[in-house]
Amino acid sequence: LDAVSVITTKRDGGELSDAQIDWVVDAFTRGIVADEQMSALAMAIVWRGMTRRETARWTAAMIGSGTRMDFTDLPRPTVDKHSTGGVGDKITLPLAPLVAACGAAVPQLSGRGLGHTGGTLDKLESIRGWQADVTVPRMREILADPAIGAVICAAGADLAPADKRLYALRDVTGTVESIPLIASSIMSKKIAEGTAALVLDVKVGSGAFLKTLDGARELATAMVELGRDAGVQTVALLTAMDTPLGRTAGNALEVAESVEVLAGGGPADVVELTLTLAREMVAQAGLRIDPADALADGRAMDHWRAMIQAQGGDPDAALPVARHSEIVRAESSGVLTRLDAMGVGVAAWRLGAGRARQGEQVQAGAGIEMHAKPGDSVVAGRPLLTLHTDTPEAFAGALSALTDAITIETGSEWKPGELILGR
Ligand code: URA
Hints:
Blueprint: H1 3-11, H2 18-29, H3 35-48, H4 52-64, E1 79-83, H5 92-101, E2 106-110, H6 120-124, H7 136-144, E3 150-154, H8 161-173, H9 179-192, E4 197-204, H10 213-229, E5 233-240, E6 248-250, H11 251-262, H12 268-284, H13 291-296, H14 299-310, E7 324-329, E8 334-339, H15 341-353, E9 367-370, E10 377-378, E11 383-389, H16 395-402, E12 406-409, E13 420-422
Parallel strand pairs: 1-4, 2-3, 4-5
Antiparallel strand pairs: 5-13, 6-9, 7-11, 8-10, 8-12, 9-11
The structure holds uracil.
């Protein structure tokens, strides 16, 4: 077997054999297949696609490049969720402790921001003292502790290392947008993390990787099949990502909003999606409890505090605030009919909530507060958004990302669309 024959098989529209897939993923992980060869193969896959069999084998090979964790000995059922990435998507923060409060164990291996989409670890790191790195034995202790039950941490180096290397290449070679590659990338990590059940939140719309319902449905189907084939009970929801979730995009801003949700308040869309996903997760775990009760009586908040403390964080510490802010005002009066997720995501990213380059520090306080959401009435001259940053030279770039992101209409009977688009 050699790299060129694998590349040309796919380039010419052929189906890769199990032996070819096993070999190329393993050889790439060990540095025998070069980055330029794997990039060429990724591009051939973008164009030619992969069959269900190839995608399943590819995923298994990526899992096999590292260690598959096993939490079957825990006294409680494990269940996790994964979002394909959006703007203002802080749902994991209230969701993981809420589901733990319902009696499940939630092993959440999370990532950092990618492009215009925020990262859960970046958000939690705005809490004083909180550490993203947790050893596997400590993960097990936290998950087994009935007062905590949830851990949100960085994936160790041994979790699907082939995906880590391949993802970095795809990011810089225009090969992210492929359903089999996205599905296998996400599912290799989620299967390797050892969860028994999984709920996928597949985002659709301007701020998502997939812009159409058909594309998102195809991705969701591919991921559900991969999960079930690997013995992980998997369901997927399709949810709207045309406008940001909630009223904040940015790291500390989103932590504050998540704490509001845990305290029984918070924006209606964040509460709706948190409870919808929690019900799916609790059902997958075979538990009979309504998450709305665990949210209302403060148990979810207790688990949040314990979860943050278990990773060295101080849940009572004041959150960082950016040094500079600027207000964007409504240009006319009427109904806000569009606040584009991509525009807001790119603006928050440029303000410092995300990274321009791999490995860069993010600003904890940077981001955007939204004073109105689509469907709300707005008045000319009143604040629509507040932009926050430590680096005021970033305002110009953020404002330019927002130029075409806002639509205000008069006299319209306009209503926002549904948040949950399918299951
Ligand atoms: N998230 C991932 O982990 N992988 C992808 O390919 C896309 C989004």
